[in-house]
Amino acid sequence: MASTALEIIAFVVSISGWLLVSSTVPTDYWKVSTNDGTVITTATFWANLWKTCVTDSTGVSSCKDFPSMLALDGYIQACRGLMIAAVSLGFFGSIIALFGMKCTKVGGSEKAKAKIACFAGVVFILSGLCSMTGCSLYANKITTEFFDPLFIDQKYELGAALFIGWSGASLCIIGGVLFCFSIYDNNKTPRMGYTYNGATSAMSSRTKYHGGEGNIKNTNPSKQFDKNAYV
Fold it and tell me: Which strands sit side by side in the sheet containing 61-65, from one edge to the other?
């Protein structure tokens, strides 16, 4: 019962993290222009993995998609690959987890289901690590340019999408670890023992039979001895 509840909690946590990671990919504000050192701000620049935009003081936004995938910076390409891998791994991990949970009717025996659940936990951990790495790589580029005194172009700050991605990655890792603990709890659960009394009853009947025969054999000599004693 405890392992079943643990698997349900792990599944809810992992799915929540996967949904947050999935929502991070199309989110707009991965980085936002900083207001540090500026007196009057007339426009706000922001960008994500797919486009760069500018919003003027009236609230009108103008966006431009990245013209070429091969002409992008290396860190953007790496972040795209890592985030797509995180979403894909989370999707397959959720399907595998459904086969490994005890509350479902598919997956085979309890021992096989425990192994499947543990494998789903590993997949969720990999999904969380991919998302964590992608967001951290993007954030590292922003902070490096922000604190570089020789960088004269537009500087940016961390956007909301990065914090959402970190939160989703943390939930995926926590849920995956809980799935891995569920197999330990399953092996720790004691098994019910059953006794078979058929062989014991047969042996006892044989013992009684031989015991009775022995008594018969023991009584016969005594009766003969008594007859001879009076002769």
Answer: 61-65, 51-56, 43-47, 31-33, 156-158
Tell me the pLDDT tens digit for each residue of 70-83: 888 889 999 999 99
Contact 167, 23 (CB under 8 A): no
Q: Give the predicted TM-score (pTM) of the model.
A: 0.75
| pLDDT 10s digits, 84-122 | 999 999 999 999 999 988 888 876 788 888 889 999 999
Residue 88 to residues 136, 154, 187, 231, Cα–Cα distance (Å): 19, 34, 30, 105
Cα–Cα distance, 158 to 146 (Å, whole number): 10
Rounded CA-CA distance 20/29 in Å is 14
User: Can you say whether the dihedral through the CA atoms of 63, 69, 74, 75 is positive or negative?
Assistant: positive
With tokens 């991605």, the residue in question is 165
